[in-house]
Give the backbone structure.
Amino acid sequence: MRAYQSWGRYPRTQHTRVLPVFWRSEPPALGGITESVLPFACGRSYGDSCLNDGGALLDVTGLRRFIAFDESQALLRCEAGVTLADVLSLMAPRGWFVPVLPGTQWVSVGGAIANDIHGKNHHRAGTFGTHVTCLELMRSTGERVLCSPERNADLFRATIGGLGLTGLILWADIRLKRVPGPAIAMERVRFACLEEFLDLSSSDQAYEYTVAWVDCLARGRRLGRGLFLRGDHASRSLTSSEAHDARLKVPIDLPSGFINRTTLALFNACYYRSQLRTKLRKTVHYQQFFFPLDGIGEWNRLYGRRGFFQYQCVVPDDLGRTIAALLSQVARSSETPALAVLKRFGTIQSPGLLSFPRPGITLAIDFANRGPATLGFLEQLDRLVVDAGGAVYPAKDARMSGASFRRYFPAWEAFASHVDPKFSSSFWRRVTAA
Amino acid sequence: MRVLIVGATSAIAGETAKAYARDGGRLFLTGRDAARLASVRDDLLVRGAAQVETAELDVARIPSHRPVIDSAIAALGGLDVALIAHGTLPDQALCQQEVSETLDAIQINFTATVALLTLLANYFEAERSGCIAVITSVAGDRGRQSNYVYGAAKGGVDRFLQGMRNRLFRSGVAVLTIKPGFVDTPMTAGMKKSLLFASARRVGFGIHRAIERRRSVVYIPWFWRPIMAVIKCLPEDIFKRLQL
């Protein structure tokens, strides 16, 4: 049996059993199951939203078939366990592209819907759910419900971003987009402080894709320095060396102290100065542009056996005040903030009741798990986010309090009425506990 | 490429079918369940197959073989490749208790395969080209107490194919024996996965490559060849004492 754990490898859970689903014509009968169930595919959620401690998992990786592609409508119908990598490898050579891509292609379509994921083009395209036109949901009663923005619209809005709790998504229709080829014309701009980031990101609309890497250990005048990445699809063809994608793999769990403030400071300083000029322009394969970390298999093992947390929040744009406060807390702490990413979200309304993206600036930082100290520190960050009227992303979370969750997602009660009585997750029980 | 796949809803055959679909191939799929066949057909059509036809076939019902093969030949206008991929993994302990269980396993994994091969060999011999590929198993290389009913059926097919390969060589027909090791499929869903397990995708694409290269016997993944070479070498007087 495969290991059923989340990407952050925290918390460790025990599932009573795993029910594999191979055929959408033969969904599992859930009536006779006493414990709760939760769909599981790629395990790329970071925390406990894809785990169901003491319950069962429905492994949907066997639901990995395409169903139809209607070229005139650009509509791809596929089963929920199809990965975005599957879609890209089939459709990109034909000039079709996934409308919203996260930082890894190893996520399932079902997972992309259940977390209403976002990508570097959020400012133009909104979330993944925005491009889902229809889906079939199986409830634990065995009833199969077609949901779309027009049909069973309430259940549709609950299922988009619904963390897998409204039932088992069997298949979905996704509207793809036309692209001229696999090339991305990209530009990387070095910025010396947070104000420069805010300036750069206010020109987002001129580019299809934008995101920034931040040096979380920089303080004072350098607070919020980093590299701003922006790009557009390009029609130029790539040479074979440009199309080459490196494949490394982390073979073992590294010692938990491998990533520490010293190694990080060294890495950040080198990476920040990795380009001599302020602006670097080049054309790359979309794999390199979107999924640099996919080139390193199982990179989560770099954090050792204790795993790590990713803290991703969004806060309203208050001229960068809250982001600056968060970054300076992080820089002054004794935690080890590894990878950090900043992006300005656009104003397109997310379709799901529990969707995370909303207008403002999102910050995501990986922290090695150092036990209670790290948990306490992240709780401090939550206070800043709550006060600013922001939110923390459930797909990345393993620790936020129920009180914070209910502040971040005021629609949670409306959502709860759509949760299937047989479906639950470690995350859901945690944040709804009194 | 015109390809007949018997047992096309198996995970391994499904992956091989994808490789043919990617190249714009034309496929005729058989399986026991119409809804499953339809799922596989739709997937292959999206993946680029030029034509996909399906027919329900329970291989244990041997008289139904000929009409299905005939309709495959008619639908595709002839065959270039036939892949026999059906199979069941019987419960060895149950087989030891129930004669009928053993005979059912032999019927599906040996008798039905031999019946299909007899018809296909004559077709391809007359065409004087093409390839017949059959999925057997490393379990057929040596009988072991843990699964010798399955092993005997697969080993029997193995021997049958040796002779057929010898016969059809003169006609320019390739006969391929495919010996996968442990594969992560619905058939082995209940087994604990070790490093020896390969993905269905790896095995399925390996089969496609072996057919293209007109190989005779392939182990997939390759490391099973030396492993089985050692296991086959052990003297029976030693082997019978082992817990395998």
